[in-house]
Amino acid sequence: MSTTFHKMHGYGNDFVILDAREGAIAVDEALATKLCDRHRGIGCDQLIRLSKGSEAPVRMDIWNPDGSAAEACGNATRCVVALTGAGRIETDGGVLDGVVNDLSVTVTLPEPKFQWDEIPTADPMDTAPLPLAWDALENPDAVNVGNPHIVFFVDDVDAVPLDELGPRIENDPAFPERINVNIAQSTEKGLLIRTWERGAGLTQACGTGACASAVAAIRRKKAVSPVIVMMPGGTVHIDWSLGGKIGMTGAATHVFTGRIDLEAL
User: How confident is the model at residue 265 (pLDDT cuts 50, 70, 90)?
Assistant: First the structure.
């Protein structure tokens, strides 16, 4: 029996979206890994399943290519808002608001959290900055924007071997739930970032990474809101004030709709 899916992306951060609002679709770690596989499945950075929410019209569950679950995904939220027209999306990272504009989608993420046990880290420590270092990367800021991130400010994002350092930092025992890793560079045009996503690796864009990096930059007075955040795949605009929720505006692109026999994978 075949199941309909949608392929969408936010600046190259791509998703397979299964809509289970009218009929249950069981997803486990093995199925998520198979669907995300770019050679033997459909291929994507994250698998998304939609269902009816208890706190919002639509619930979004997220799986990484390694089969692990993710609490939130900013780019996927924009895609789901664009696909469904829903103004509120329920996730494990909180209820997110969204609105479709003429050529973009704006979503609102929860107020960021900064305490060590909200990230979390394994032991109590300052989070702005963290007293930790990995080779030349040191003293990052930690922030939870629905999922956990650390942000390193560097002089040149292209000079950092993030493909080597990313997995080391993601899986460091200092982070019992693992961590998303961002490197950020302040420029005259805005903030330039690259992200190693927990459970997914290097991606073309990371919406929550852009939010976390902008928040960290504003707190460090390296940027003022609204912040233009430039990623390898494209640019988003982040609005945030101390004590408030985070607004993110960017594109959401529908690539195609298809059908797949999940039992045949």
Answer: confident
Q: Is residue 73 among the annotated active site residues?
A: yes
* Domain spans of the chain, in order of start: 2-108+251-264, 116-244
Antiparallel, parallel or unpaired: β 191-197 and 227-231? parallel
pLDDT digits (tens, 9 = 90+) for 190-213: 999 999 999 999 999 999 999 999
Domain 116-244: give its CATH architecture: Roll (3.10)
Q: Where are the beta strands (DSSP E) in the chain?
A: 2-10, 13-19, 46-52, 58-63, 69-70, 88-91, 94-100, 105-109, 133-134, 137-138, 141-144, 148-153, 180-186, 191-197, 201-202, 227-231, 234-239, 246-250, 253-261
pLDDT band with cut points at 50, 70 and 90 for residue 1: low
Catalytic residue among 44, 73, 79, 211: 73
Choosing from 36, 44, 79, 206, which is the catalytic residue?
A: 206
> What is the per-residue pLDDT across 143-169, written as a single tens digit (0 to 9) for each?
999 999 999 999 999 999 999 999 999
Within this chain, domains 2-108+251-264 and 116-244 share the same CATH topology: yes
Indicate the average pLDDT of the chain.
95
Q: 101-133 in b/e burial notation, b at 16+ Cβ within 10 A?
A: eeebbbbbbbebbbeeeebbbeeeeebebbebe
Tell me the two tokens of residue 73: 């995904």
C-alpha 196/C-alpha 218 separation (Å) is 21
Contact of 108 with 95, CB cutoff 8 Å = no
State the CATH class of domain 2-108+251-264. Answer: alpha beta
pLDDT surpasses 90 at 118: yes
> How many whole angstroms separate alpha carbon 262 and alpha carbon 3?
7
